């Protein structure tokens, strides 16, 4: 799947912290996330960890109109929340998203090894 159920938790937490969700709405989203985690089996999560600065620069380079209102502070908040939810978990592979395409071959080899390990230990 493209996103893990933890994405719901991350974006819900962001919305709550910024006043877009009430406490009861946030609590409902946390419950939804917990239920999704129980019924949605997955072998692991690949976290494409990219700094807010690189994310913002790439976004400006793409120049998509639908991204024009996204601010560096928004990206920084999401980066911090993703780190909070994903870093340190043994079911998460952290892929260095700051690498340029031509530098990613070693990271892809690490990912392949992690995937083999994850599937063989299940």
From TrEMBL:
It comes from Ceutorhynchus assimilis. GO terms for cellular component: mitochondrion. One of its GO terms (molecular function) is deoxynucleoside kinase activity. It comes from the Eukaryota. Residues 1-106 form the Deoxynucleoside kinase domain. Pfam families: dNK. SUPFAM superfamilies: P-loop containing nucleoside triphosphate hydrolases. Signal peptide: none annotated. This is Deoxynucleoside kinase domain-containing protein.
């Amino acid at each position: 799947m493209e996103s893990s159920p933890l994405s719901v938790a991350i974006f819900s937490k962001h919305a709550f912290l910024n006043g877009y969700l009430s406490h009861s709405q946030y609590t409902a989203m946390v419950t939804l996330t917990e239920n999704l985690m129980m019924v949605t089996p997955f072998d692991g999560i690949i976290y494409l960890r990219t700094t807010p600065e690189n994310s913002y620069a790439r976004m400006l380079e793409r120049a998509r109109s639908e991204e024009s209102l996204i601010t560096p502070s928004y990206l920084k908040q999401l980066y911090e929340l993703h780190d909070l939810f994903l870093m340190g978990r043994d079911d998460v592979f952290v892929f260095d998203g700051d690498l340029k395409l031509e530098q990613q071959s070693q990271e892809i080899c690490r990912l392949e090894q992690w995937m083999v390990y994850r599937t063989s230990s299940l």
